[in-house]
Amino acid sequence: MTEQLKGRRSVLSYWPVVLGAAAATFQLVAGVAADAVAITVSVAASCYLAAAALGQRWIAWAGVLTGSVVVTVSEVTGLAWWLGLSVYAVVLLLVGLLRRASSRPLTAQGIAMLAFAGLAVVGVLVSPRLGLAIAGVALASHAGWDYLHWRRNEVVPRSLAEFCIVLDLPLGTAAVVLAFTT
């Protein structure tokens, strides 16, 4: 009996899944807009980049707040949110290079930031409807990136990867569906 219980998770250990589902539900109820989906995937990618640049997995959780603050400050000061996040990403890369962070994770996260966030931003700048679909695809695809890191248990804490999977997949999928049905 004890052997069977060793492989099971406690109910309390599912908090990242509950938090991710709550965040996705909130965004779905509030209305799925191209900018919001693009911001979500861009901030998510910046969390991974921050953890790689600073060499601390827990930094990814702090990156959720930091990326959100960067977006808010950018918009309040009249700067486009994506420009603020771009500057933030460059600063993270420079910090990673200056502190001689492990090049493999830093490079991978830098490319991922450029790919996921870049795709979402380009989509939003092109057309609201097409942008919603493209940002949705970028966000849903990011769930695969989350799963890869969850499975390998590297760069970010598993709890953050779980949170992101449960946020990214339903919200990204909903964005794609809404882009083609509204």
**How many strands appear in the DSSP assignment?**
0
Please report which band the strand proportion falls in: under 5%, 5-15%, 15-25%, 25-35%, 35-45% or over 45%. Answer: under 5%
Order of helices and strands: HHHHHHHH
Give the helix tally: 8
Shape: globular
Can you give the helix content as a percent range? over 70%
Question: What is the domain tally?
Answer: 1
What features would you highlight for this structure?
182 residues, mainly alpha, 8 helices, 83% helix, globular, transmembrane helix, membrane
Account of the protein in words:
The protein is an all-alpha fold and 182 residues long. The chain has one domain (34-181). It has helices spanning 2-6, 15-30, 34-54, 59-76, 81-98, 103-126, 128-152, 158-181. α2 runs parallel beside α8 (158-181) and α3 (34-54) packs parallel to α5 (81-98). The radius of gyration is 17 Å and the shape is globular. It starts with a helix and ends with a helix.
Quick structural gist:
The protein has 182 residues and is an all-alpha fold.
Topology (SSEs and partners):
Elements: H1 2-6, H2 15-30, H3 34-54, H4 59-76, H5 81-98, H6 103-126, H7 128-152, H8 158-181
Transmembrane segments: 12-30, 36-53, 80-98, 110-126, 160-180
Keywords: Membrane, Transmembrane, Transmembrane helix
